[in-house]
Each structure stands twice: as structure tokens, then as C-alpha cells.
């Protein structure tokens, strides 16, 4: 198995959206994304200005994405196609996104995850050292991580 991660270009927004809309948990359609103001144009602008998108491929198949946005200091997206879960792609994509944010000067970063009970993402983020930090105004769970935690590692 050959895994490669590349920086996404504006021309690859359809790939980012295809992976985002193909997940089982925390699924969101293109229409619902647009309702939240997440359009292809917005994504293209983010990944070519204050953010970066990353695409993980396995044996040439685009299988996972992450998007980090430095101005807001957040992980905007991290998704892996269902058939490619459990291969470590999420961990690799999160590491790329976190590194981008911390190298961009962010000290404390955040992400939000669905508030649905038992969502696997909650355990995944906790395993990577993210701390639950309450609720976002829209009811999503907020997770945070500081640059110091990345350097020292999460507290035991």
C-alpha cells in the first residue's frame, strides 16, 4: 500500500467535496454545506489564501482530506472515505493540518465535531491530544489543542 499526501489546489475542490459528502458519520450534502456558506468558491479561496487543503491518496485513489484555516486557527475539515478508514489516513491528515496551523503562527487551535452521542470522531480527536472545550453556538462540540501540547504531548 502506497500512501501519499499532497497540498490541494483550487482545481481539486470537487475532490474535497466528493470525499466530504461520501462519509457515513457527520454526513453533509453540498446543499446543506451551501446553507452554512461552505461553497466551492469559499473552499477554493480558503485553501489558496489563509488555509491549506490536504488530500491523502492510497495507491493512487484519493481517499481522505483535511483543511486548515490559519486566520481562524481551526481545522475546517477532516474526512476519510468509509472504505479507507482504519488505515491511519486521518492521523496523517490531522498532523499535516496541525503542522500548517502551528507553522502559520497559531498558538491555540480548535475544531468542531457533531454533537451526536457516540460519534467516533470524538474519540479520534481525544486520542490525538485534542481536549473537549464545550459547545459551539450551533451546538457542535468544540475541541482545542495548543502548540505547547503538540511539543510536549498531551498530559497523562
TrEMBL record:
Q: Could you tell me which Gene3D superfamilies the record lists for this protein?
A: 3.40.630.30
Signal peptide extent? none
Pinpoint the N-acetyltransferase domain residues: 3-148
Xref: Pfam families:
Acetyltransf_1
**This protein is called what?**
GNAT superfamily N-acetyltransferase
Q: What is the lineage of its organism?
A: Bacteria, Pseudomonadati, Pseudomonadota, Alphaproteobacteria, Hyphomicrobiales
